[in-house]
Design a protein that fits this description.
Number of helices of chain A: 10
Structural class of chain A: alpha/beta
InterPro entries (chains A, B): AceGlu_kinase-like_sf, Asp/Glu/Uridylate_kinase, Fosfomycin_R_FomA-type
Largest sheet of chain A: 9 strands, mixed
Protein name (chains A, B): Isopentenyl phosphate kinase
GO molecular function (chains A, B): ATP binding; isopentenyl phosphate kinase activity; kinase activity
Catalytic activity (chains A, B): isopentenyl phosphate + ATP = isopentenyl diphosphate + ADP
CATH architecture of the domain at 6-172 in chain A: 3-Layer(aba) Sandwich
Radius of gyration of chain A: 18 Å
Distance between the termini of chain A: 38 Å
CATH topology of the domain at 6-172 in chain A: Carbamate kinase
CATH superfamily of the domain at 6-172 in chain A: Acetylglutamate kinase-like
Oligomer: homodimer
Strand content of chain A: 15-25%
Family (chains A, B): Belongs to the isopentenyl phosphate kinase family.
């Protein structure tokens, strides 16, 4: 399996106006496409892009209870799944089209069909299509989707969960979450005094320093940031620290350097890395330096 | 493997204005969706829909020579493949959305990734996703697409070729091609005196009566009708006659009955079936009755 340079997550909050149904942020789409084009030009074009749904699919999925599914009420779930997929694939088409218009060899690959779950746990991941596309010189563009679930008819497969699987399969040099804020804050970022956390040390058991971050993340109503952070932690621990995870702002000058080099300077974003047992103290210190 | 009620091919000529780039015929989209909804209501909803590209993708694919591909010139092919896929998936989204808006549990499934070719011959068919969707009560909606080819980088996988594979895998009761004309004519349908051929007898060796149909099909500039006819012949012979193929007009009252019962009356369309050795003469006679 060929390794990827980078797995990029384009956050749904960054790409869309979250409160406005099916409303994409054109500037964010252009920024994302321009960024990937620069990565290609710099010879780091072995990327996989995964984007969230934001205000696409969210309303339909919620209205039909797709996340919890049901072993019996499949009629309503089917309708919900179809409506949700129409919406999320619309955004996937917009993202992919913008990339292609910028000269990026992007191909949209929708998880439905190739990915499956059982009780919300992934039982089948559509890796072959992604691997083949990468090896042929393309940049696969996946998205959070609804998929078939053998226990509850269907489930939501989030972009973050996809990222975690891709990290295992493609051993990227780094995973970069591109969001609508600069990174992870010590409290909701719109709270006075909120401070960007420059780095988070992940222990081998999955606990993190500073630990406060695991609990209080009330500023994300969809639970997305909690899942994002857990995903980031899982990637760092499962790769035994070989895959650092960076979180920074999509529409920024920082994003390109983060993707190309993995470098984030103080105040530019949040980096998660595995704590080496010998240097526990210094890592914690740097975690609060921002 | 569960059998399907019907495999439906929505012709690109029927769905789009062929000469106008990326121009869908809204009436045709609505007709197709209304038809599938009626099939579902009649308890015959185990359908697979495959549509052509028409004026979506055609121009981009031609400009970049995607059909013949190349073992070396992959940069231009990649660009062409991406542009073509943006276009054909746009139409797939429109078709699927129209179906879902009509209450049909339709899911778009794009061949790229799951289907592959070598020297234009299919080496991998994405059957599992279609089977799983059918079994979960969905109607998969596939389309002609560009796919990766291990010898010439990429190739065009036509909707007709997909149909042939699906017929083998899902043993439908019938395959129905829905087009912009009533069926197959004895000469170009816009020629004075052109006569609709009601039925075509297919011999076990693939030859047909009336035999004139195999050669002169100059009225289809893309070669689509020749391929369509060959596909139809292959389906009839490979299934040993158990799968009849019907060709009729999408926007007609005939289409529903053809899909539900396999019946086409004189002048309503063209039906292909396997010639039984004992009744050769009568089959040929009925072939010219229209």
């Amino acid at each position: 399996m060929a390794a990827a340079d980078c797995v990029l997550k384009l956050g749904g909050s960054a790409l869309t106006h979250k409160g406005r149904r099916e409303s994409a942020r054109d500037g964010a789409l252009r920024s994302a496409a321009g960024l990937v084009r620069e990565l290609c030009a710099a010879g780091a074009g072995r990327c996989i892009v995964v984007h969230g749904a934001g205000s696409f699919g969210h309303f339909q999925a919620k209205a039909h209870g797709l996340a919890s599914g049901s072993p019996t009420n499949s009629e309503s779930l089917r309708q919900g799944l179809c409506l949700t997929r129409i919406s999320v694939t619309k955004l996937n088409h917009m993202v992919t089209e913008q990339l292609v218009m910028c000269g990026v060899p992007a191909v949209g690959i929708s998880p439905f069909g190739a990915w499956r779950t059982a009780g919300r746990k992934i039982t089948q991941a559509g890796i072959a299509a992604i691997r083949d596309s990468l090896e042929a010189g393309y940049i696969p563009v996946l998205h959070g989707d609804c998929v078939l679930d053998s226990e509850q008819h269907c489930s939501i497969l989030s972009g973050d969960t996809i990222i975690e699987v891709l990290s295992r399969e493609f051993s990227p040099k780094r995973v970069v979450f591109l969001t609508d804020v600069d990174g992870i804050y010590d409290r909701p970022p719109d709270t006075p005094g909120a401070t960007l956390v420059d780095s988070i040390a992940v222990n081998a058991d999955g606990s993190i320093d500073p630990p406060v971050l695991t609990s209080a993340l009330p500023h994300d109503v969809t639970g997305g940031l909690a899942l994002k952070l857990q995903t980031a932690i899982n990637i760092v621990t499962q790769s035994n620290g070989s895959i650092p995870v960076l979180i920074c702002k999509l529409e920024s000058e920082v994003a390109k350097r983060a993707c190309l080099t993995g470098e984030l300077r103080t105040g530019e974003g949040t980096k998660l890395f595995l704590r080496q047992t010998e240097e526990t103290t210094s890592v914690i210190a740097s975690g609060w330096a921002g």
